[in-house]
Amino acid sequence: MIPLSHYLILSAILFSIGLYGVFTRRSAIGILLSLEIMLNAVNINFVAFAKFMAPQALTGQIFVIFTIGVAAASTVVGLAIIVAIYHNYKTIFVDEIDVMKW
Amino acid sequence: MWSNFLSASIFYLIALVSIIFAILSVTLKNMFHSALALIVMLLGVAAVYIYLDAEFLALVQVLIYVGAIMTLVIFAIMLTAEIYNKNIKRQNRQKLISLIIASSMAGFLIFVLSRFKAQGGVSFFEPLTLAMIGKELLTKYVLPFELISIILLAALVGSAAISKKE
């Protein structure tokens, strides 16, 4: 039986990797991919806590279903925005898209 | 005893593979390879869900993330990123400071969580079934369920409206 803290440590490591990706990636699609890693780490946390703290309640699993739905919606809109930006500016590198800065 | 040890070691193997492929996914130069590495990491997370007795979530993970979202992401990569151009820098100048921040956060969380002892941890109850999830979803959580369908519809219409050429 794997203890709860090992699931939480796995989730923390994945979250930190995603954070590093969000900080360092230049491509907007790369940032979206790193966000997916962070969201999955959070979902592992939800399910692990639900299993160990309240094994008879379904709240954790149902919350993860909603999280996956919202993450799918946000990814779809993000990719649409990236494609639109690529049409207009011919680049998807976030440090070159600076029309709304300054 | 032996099967316990076996299942635990398979879990740690899956966790290691997920972490390695997550690192590959944020560091690889080729965006297409990075998306493929992310697919392996998502499958690893689905296996972790199975270890947590959430078979339905594992199924949803494989269907929605690996099946739908990653297909869409690869589609967008093919449409936009110059994946074969080797000369473009893929990472910005904040590599060192981001590495320091992310690893210090990971170290702090691991330090805190490894001292954390859970009070519960009993799993002698009967497992939660898919029928129970469906019943809860359509009785107690019916309002969020309808809200998420509206959100998905808005995302569908919105993404079609944003990405069309005027």
Could you write a compact summary of the structure shown?
With 102 residues, chain A is mainly alpha-helical. Chain A has helices at residues 4-24, 28-53, 59-89.
Describe this structure in words.
The complex is a heterodimer of chains A (102) and B (166). Helices cover 76% and strands 0% of the residues of chain A. Chain A is mainly alpha-helical and 102 residues long. In chain A, α1 packs antiparallel against α2 and α2 runs antiparallel to α3 (59-89). The radius of gyration of chain A is 17 Å and the shape is elongated. The N and C termini of chain A lie far apart (55 Å). Chain B has 166 residues and is mostly helical. Chain B is built from six helices and no strands. Chain B has helices spanning 2-27, 31-51, 55-79, 95-114, 130-139, 142-163. In chain B, α1 runs antiparallel to α2 and α2 runs antiparallel to α3 (55-79). Chain B starts with a helix and ends with a helix. The mean pLDDT of chain B is 87. The interface between A and B is large, with 70 and 84 residues.
Number of helices of chain B: 6
Nearest-angstrom radius of gyration of chain B?
20 Å
Mean pLDDT of chain B: 87
Order of helices and strands of chain A: HHH
CA(first)-CA(last) distance of chain B: 65 Å
For the largest beta-sheet of chain B, the strand count, sense and barrel status come to: none
Q: Give Rg of chain A in angstroms.
A: 17 Å
The overall pLDDT average of chain A reads 89
- Provide a count of the helices of chain A: 3
Helix content of chain B: over 70%
Largest sheet, strands/sense/barrel of chain A: none
Relevant terms:
heterodimer; A: mainly alpha; 3 helices; 76% helix; elongated; B: 166 residues; mainly alpha
